[in-house]
Amino acid sequence: MNLKENISLEEVCGKVFNNRLLDVSESGKAALTHYMHNHQNGVSKFYKKEAVQHVKRALEYEYPDENISSQIAEEALQYMIFDFKKDVPFQEPKNPKFKFIDLFAGIGGFRIAMQSLGGKCVFTSEWDEKAKKTYEANFGEVPFGDITKEETKKFIPDGFDVLCAGFPCQAFSIAGKRGGFEDTRGTLFFDVAEIIKRKKPKAIFLENVKGLFNHDKGKTLKTILNVLRKDLGYFVPEPKILNAKDFGVPQNRERIFIVGFREDLGINNFEYPKPTKKNVVFEDIKEESVVSVKYYLSNTYLNTLIKHKKRHESKGNGFGYEIIPDDGTANAVVCGGMGRERNLVYDHRLEDFTPVTHIKGEVNRQGIRKMTPREWARLQGFPDKFIIPVADASAYKQFGNSVAVPAIKATANEIIKRILKNVDRK
C-alpha cells in the first residue's frame, strides 16, 4: 500500500485519531498523543514503539485488505507530527523551564498550575475514563491508565524534574513493623514511592485530604514521611494544611501538601506559600447569565432537605443543606454525600419555571438552586476556557475530586524556584 497514492495522509491521520474501536492496547492512544507532544524533546523515544503500533493497528482496522507495514505506519506517524494542530485550550510553554509528570491526574489541576509556571508535562496517568475524556479535551493528550500496572509504569520517561500526585488516602499494614517502604505494598502510595525510587526526580509534590494527618492515628502519614525521608533519600519538611480560600477562590477547602527534594541537591529549607490578601466571595464567580431551570430545586426536594436537616439538628448534628450567600465562602466541593446540597445558592433571576427534567413537584419560587458545574470549576480555580465535555453528574464528580489550582500553583512556585537554582546539579 502506498499511502500517498491510494489515500491522502490527512485522511489517514483523521482515521487514526478518531478510531475509538481499538481495544487491543489500553496504552495505544495515550502513547500516540504523548509521542506527538514530546517529539522535540527526546522523551518521544519512550512512546514511539507503541505509537507506531497504534497507528498500524488503526490502519489495519480501516484497510483490512491492505498489507500495512510498520514502515507505512511510521510514515503516517511522522506526517501527523508535521500536521499536528495544537488547538487545545491549555498548551505547553514554548520554552519549558522544567519537566514534570502528572500522576492520578484527574482533569488536570496540577497540569494547569505547573504549565503556567513554565513546566512541560512529559507523562500523565489517570484511570477514570470520563476524567480522561476531559483531560484530552483540554490538553490534547490522553492519560495512560492504571499506574499500579507495570505496563503503564514502563512508559514513564527518565529525567523529569518534578513528580506530582494527588494520591488517595489508604491505610497501611504496619502492625509490628517499622513503617517503611515494604509496609506500603498494596496501596497506591507504594506505586508512587516505587516510581520515585526508580526515576529519582529532583522534587516531589503530593496532595491529599486533610484527614491524612490523623489517619490511622497518625501512622499513615508517619509511614509516608519515613519512606520519603529514610528509604528514598529526600529532604521533606513537615507537611502543611493549606486552605483554598487563602489563595483567591471562595471555597473553604483544606488539603495537606507534602513537598520533598532529592537530598543531593543540597536544599534544606522550604517555606510554604503565605496566604494572599485577596478577598473573594461567591458573587465573584457566580454565573453572569440566568442559568437553566434544571439547577433549581423542586419544592418536594427542598422540603426533603429541610426535614433531613431538622432530624439531624434534633440529634445535635450539624449535617444538612446550606445556602451560601453571595458575599459568602462556599463549603468544600466534594463528589459524594451532601456535596451539592451544602453549596446551594440564591438566584432570583429565573422567570420561566417550566421544568426541563423529570422532577417531583413544582420548581421552588424562593430562588434556591444548585451551583452549576462552571461555578464549581471556578471554585477550584479553573479558568473559564477550561472545556467541560461531560454531563453534569460527571462534571461535579470531576471538579469535586480535583485540586484547587491556585493553592497548587502557589506551592509549586516555591518548589520550582528552589530546583531551578540547582538546575546544573545531578
Automatic annotation (TrEMBL):
Its EC number is 2.1.1.37. One of its GO terms (biological process) is DNA restriction-modification system. The active site is at C169. It is an enzyme of class 2 (transferase). It comes from the Bacteria. It catalyses: a 2'-deoxycytidine in DNA + S-adenosyl-L-methionine = a 5-methyl-2'-deoxycytidine in DNA + S-adenosyl-L-homocysteine + H(+). The keyword Transferase applies. One of its GO terms (molecular function) is DNA (cytosine-5-)-methyltransferase activity. PROSITE patterns: C5_MTASE_1 (PS00094), SAM_MT_C5 (PS51679). Keywords: Methyltransferase, Restriction system, S-adenosyl-L-methionine, Transferase. Transmembrane segments: none annotated. SUPFAM superfamilies: S-adenosyl-L-methionine-dependent methyltransferases (SSF53335). It holds the Pfam family DNA_methylase. Belongs to the class I-like SAM-binding methyltransferase superfamily. C5-methyltransferase family. This is Cytosine-specific methyltransferase. It comes from Flagellimonas aequoris.
